[in-house]
Amino acid sequence: MRKKLVAGNWKMNLSFREALDLTAKLRSEFHPSDKVDVAIAPSFPYLYPIVKMLEDNEINVLAQNMHWADFGAYTGEVSAPMLRSVGVNSVILGHSERRLYFHETPEILQKKVNRAILEDFHVIFCIGEKWEDRKAGKHIEVIQNQIAGSLFKLELQDWNLITLAYEPVWAIGTGQTASPEQAQEMHSFIRRLIKNKYGSETANQVRILYGGSVKPGNAAELFAQPDIDGGLIGGASLKANDFLAIIQAAKEAG
Ligand code: PEP
Fold this sequence. Notes:
Layout: E1 4-9, H1 16-29, E2 36-41, H2 47-53, E3 60-61, H3 80-85, E4 90-93, H4 96-101, H5 106-118, E5 122-127, H6 131-135, H7 139-151, E6 162-166, H8 180-198, H9 200-205, E7 207-211, H10 216-223, E8 230-233, H11 240-253
Helix pairs in contact: 5-7, 10-11
Bound molecules: phosphoenolpyruvate.
């Protein structure tokens, strides 16, 4: 039985003060649960203070990105050893905004994933098709290529560190969510793909999150699908009450 995971991707939002206030509210209202894990991904400058605030709490802190090298002449970048040194050991990779605006290709993402695994980091790896891919009936092929292109050189045991997040690009920040049936269809395809490559045990244990305009009003029906193991939440993770309601929906579905 896979435990649900609800992760908040704060993106490039919130002032420092607002980030601390949101963390404080989540800290006081989220109680550890055997049904759901919770994580938040603040911006880099806020990671260390938020890790400190959550030291005695089970909310995990994620980075939104990292570089593939350990150290070196990469102005403006942040590496896994740097993140570890401030108490972070999990990262989101492959978000569609990174692919779109920063030209992160499957090859670049493969290097990042490899570094993350080498450093024993947990990775939430995002995949998702654009609307034109779906309209052209190519959504399955796109997802297959994204997964195979960055993850299929991993060793079997590396999958203990991988969580997938299916985020159709047309549903991110648009208010247009994939229907539970559309999401379930893709999640079950992804699980079959993993099964064919790595076997049933790995396929059954890997968590596959859904992301794309998840809100308190639609979380329960998405999380009720058999292959949806929680959510990666953008906009709604910036409002404590909405994020807590989504966590509650995951708990009830779990
Ligand atoms: C995201 O960008 O990961 C995301 C799911 O955003 P939103 O929930 O705002 O659609």
